[in-house]
Amino acid sequence: MGQYVGLDVSQKLTALCVIDESGQRIWQGTCRSSPSAIAQTLQERVGEAVRVGMETGPLAVWLYHGLHELGVPIVCIHARHVHAALSVQLNKTDGNDAHGIAQLVRSGWYRPVEVKSLESHELRLLLSARAKLVGMRTALYSQIRGVLKTFGVVLRPGRRGTFERLVLDATPQRAAVAEVVGVLLETWREISDKIRLMDRAVHRAAKANKICTRFMSVPGVGPNTALAFYTCVDDPRRFARVTDVGAYLGLTPKKYQSGDVDRNTSISKCGDRLTRYLLVEAAGVLLRRTRMDSALKRWGLRLVPRVGFRKAIVAMARKLSTLLLSIWRDESVFRPAG
Predict the structure, then answer these.
(1) Which residue in 96, 98, 53, 101 sits closest to 73, CA to CA?
(2) Nearest 5°: phi and psi at 52?
(3) Is 99 within a domain?
């Protein structure tokens, strides 16, 4: 008789619950939160596991790949779906959550999450670290301008070296103000240097990847966008149709239907935020800055008078996502003629 297992993972201990095909609880306990400990416990307590389920979380990627290598039939379920299914429980405990997850995988009333490869997570680390540094630099930029405004100094817009010269020339000759602004500016300068190092690392990683090189043949798509799309999709065979990737990235409108009301609202914005942002940025570059004439650009420009520039950029970003996925699947490059 087949058995189903639910795992409720925490940092130190993992609660396990084993049920049979009729949903009856067979065994429940805990073990250390590591692939080897979980696999050993399953080997000792479970006869033949049909499916082992766990929810997404900080340790999900490590545990999933570790258990998969050890031959455990593991599936990962989105934490929001698990929460919705288990919200009717009166008492929330680790054991009850593990039992609920076991019932989910037994019933099949779930959609498994595609866990990306460790290679994609390693490459993704470059992009996430760079994005974090850019956010810190932007915050320091605003902080410096705000400090100087307190003393009547309003800086005109400037970037990189221009901003640094403006700050040095306009800082009031007050010891306390000069000291604080100097520390903030030095930190801003160091973070800018680190961002340049991360940019070079991202560029090297994108150039070394043949798929990302083909992505960058599309006008407006640079190393950041190419690497973000590659690591976000991870496996192009995940999608039955290339147009499905737009919904996966949150670039398609949400639908609201109730009775006589049937309307499309704004885009869903689900999925990876960084990849969606970079695709929208690439779409803006393609429509506004790229001089190369192409069927893709002409398609986007024809949309502008009809739907407006903002909606045209979102539509172009969605078009870019399907184009990049097609290039990946066909092992081709961008052709300006279409």
Answers:
(1) 53
(2) -120, 125
(3) yes
Encoded tokens for 68? 């998969």
**Contact yes or no for 6/53 (Cβ under 8 A):** yes
The radius of gyration of the chain's CA atoms, rounded to the nearest angstrom, is: 25
Are 327 and 333 in contact, with CB atoms under 8 Å apart? yes
Give the C-alpha distances (Å, rounded to integers) separating 137 from 20, 150, 185, 186, 197. 55, 20, 10, 11, 14
Query: How many domains is the chain built from?
Result: 3
At 108, which amino acid appears?
A: G
Q: Which residue has the tokens 């020339």?
A: 169
CATH code, 54: 3.30.420.40
Structure letter (DSSP) for residue 238: G
**Which pLDDT belongs to residue 90?**
86
Pairwise CA distance, residues 20 & 3, whole Å: 5
The C-alpha angle with vertex 262 and arms to 260 and 266, in degrees rounded to 5, equals 150
Contact 328, 234 (CB under 8 A): no
SS3 327: helix
**Domain assignment of residue 220, given as a range:** 212-330
Q: What is the pLDDT of residues 181-213, one digit of tens each?
A: 999 999 999 999 999 999 999 999 999 999 999
Say which DSSP state 16 is in. Answer: E
Write the pLDDT tens digit of every residue in 309-323. 999 999 999 999 999
Nearest-5° Cα angle at 232, 229 to 238? 105
Q: Look at residue 275 and give its three-state secondary structure.
A: helix
Q: Which two tokens stand for residue 152?
A: 């009547």
Same domain, 140 and 181: yes
7 forms beta bridges with 16, 54
User: What is the DSSP secondary-structure string of 135-201?
Assistant: HHHHHHHHHHHHHHHHTT--PPP--HHHHHHHHHHHS-S-HHHHHHHHHHHHHHHHHHHHHHHHHHH
Contact 15, 30 (CB under 8 A): yes
Structure-block tokens of residue 256: 């609201």
Instruction: Indicate the DSSP class of residue 108.
Output: T
Is residue 244 located within the same domain as residue 156?
A: no
